[in-house]
Amino acid sequence: MAKQHNRPDRTRRLIVKAILAGVGLGLTGWKRARAADASLWLKDAFTQKTEADAIKALYGKDAEASDQVKLDAPEIAENGAVVPISVSSALPDVTSIAILVSENPFPLAATYKIPPGTSGMVANRLKMAKTSKVVALVESGGKIYSASKEVKVTVGGCGG
Amino acid sequence: MASTIRLRAIVSGDTTEVQALVQHPMDSGFVKDSAGNLIPPHHIEVVEFEHAGKAVFTALWGPAVSKDPYVKFSFKGAQKGDDLTVSWVDNKGESDSLVAKIQ
Q1: Which residues of B touch A40 (CB under 8 A)?
Q2: Residue range(s) defining the domain that contains residue A59
């Protein structure tokens, strides 16, 4: 008698387990599809307070100035909250691009990973606290090349 | 809820030009509100672009990227009608993603 009662119980437990597993899979799958991988962020490099320390944290080596790196930024930015900046390079095998604003509280503003097949070019918009040197870094063939430009800011982008 | 992401990807020859615009406050942590209190940092950290299951571009952003960030790049190997997936995550763990057809 007890045995007969056991069977439907076990089946029901199996069904409940299957449903829970299905829901679990569905949720993790959904999460993976919806969110970028937060662990890729480089906290150490983004929290350095000087340009040199940020470059060291980012690449572990010095950059060499190169006319192969093209940095497009305005001479004068009237609004430091939105400064259009683009970087491009004709260097082969570009693997990353980084942009630093030397006088910002945290100089490293953005860095981009460039896999094979993607052009060595990026355009974005950055905040500048005040007049500052802007530095573009391009990683190519394991070496770091740089270009820089002074951008005058009339109204700072940090609200202060 | 409407997506926070606007994505335009256009093929020309063998190159696809991608422009993305994300709605996000990108609070730097250095700005005070009207009562004089610091607004805590709230900014996107990582944006990933994928085509055919492969990362074609990854952006890592600090608090110095402007509010409602814009980014443009281009890559090779995509066809008109292919899917391009973009996803972001910020320092509070909020996230969003979008799949768009390449035009």
Answers
A1: 45-46, 48, 58, 60
A2: 39-155
